[in-house]
């Protein structure tokens, strides 16, 4: 059971990933968390990534790609995982394809979180993380819209996309995802 989450910030990906971890034992691989931790601990990666994160921009692929390879290695190439926050564009998606092919673990599903921009901006304002000023929130949502189109096309062509209405209650979103995963025989 290997799944990628795609959706704007504030669409509930982290919440659903936590449920998949708790209930189905998936390993959580979240690039946002790893980057924030790197910034807090002041590693070379954190120092390089911080200015981009503060501006609500994507951290350059070269930094993030190596980090993800290392993340899979650190978790001993898990058989069951949820990837949250990566890939964010088609180039990163091709990188994931290559990485998973190399370790012989193809994706089972890509969950696409559908939700209005205004709803997610409001949610991001409410959670008040350091990188969530309203201006940054709007920039991050716009950036998502711009880069997600190509990413979604990439996965649609592989017939992997499963859409969920991310404005639905948490348990409803969860059962939609869980159903899809079990339909895939996982
Ligand atoms: P997130 O918590 O997933 O929204 O990530 C927080 C921030 O980390 C983003 O706004 C980006 O600056 C950076 N980031 C996380 N994942 C990626 C990625 N796959 N590619 C580039 N930047 C990323």
3D architecture notes:
The protein is of the alpha/beta class. Helix content is 59%, strand content 13%. A 5-stranded parallel sheet has the order 2-3-1-4-5, sandwiched between helices. Helix 1 packs across helix 8, helix 2 packs across helix 3 and helix 6 packs across helix 7. The chain is globular and about 40 Å long. The chain starts with a strand and ends with a helix. The mean pLDDT is 93.
> Could you tell me how far the N terminus lies from the C terminus, measured between alpha carbons in angstroms?
5 Å
Helix content: 55-70%
- Taking all Cα atoms into account, the compactness measure Rg is 16 Å
Uncertain spans: none
Please tell me the overall pLDDT.
93
Quantity of strands, as a count: 5
User: Which H/E pattern describes the elements?
Assistant: EHEHHHEHEHHEH
Count of DSSP H/I helices? 8
Derived from helix and strand composition plus strand pairing, the structural class reads alpha/beta
Question: Compounds present?
Answer: adenosine monophosphate
If strands are numbered along the chain, what order do they take across the biggest sheet?
2-3-1-4-5
Main beta sheet: strand number and arrangement? 5 strands, parallel
β-sheet strand percentage: 5-15%
């Amino acid at each position: 059971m290997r799944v990628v989450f795609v959706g704007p910030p504030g669409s509930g990906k982290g919440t659903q990933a936590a449920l998949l971890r708790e209930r189905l034992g998936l390993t959580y691989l979240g690039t946002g968390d790893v980057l924030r931790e790197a910034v807090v601990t002041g590693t070379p990666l954190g120092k390089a990534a911080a200015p981009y994160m503060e501006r609500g921009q994507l951290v350059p692929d070269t930094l993030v790609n190596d980090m993800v390879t290392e993340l899979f290695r650190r978790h001993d190439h898990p058989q069951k995982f949820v990837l949250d926050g990566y890939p964010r564009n088609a180039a990163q998606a091709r990188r994931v394809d290559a990485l998973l092919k190399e370790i012989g673990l193809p994706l089972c599903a890509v969950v696409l979180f559908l939700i209005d921009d205004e709803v997610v901006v409001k949610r991001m304002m409410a959670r008040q993380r350091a990188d969530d000023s309203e201006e940054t929130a709007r920039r991050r949502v716009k950036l998502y819209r711009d880069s997600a189109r190509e990413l979604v096309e990439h996965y649609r062509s592989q017939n992997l996309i499963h859409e969920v209405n991310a404005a639905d209650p948490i348990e409803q979103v969860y059962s939609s995802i869980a159903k899809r995963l079990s339909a895939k025989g996982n």
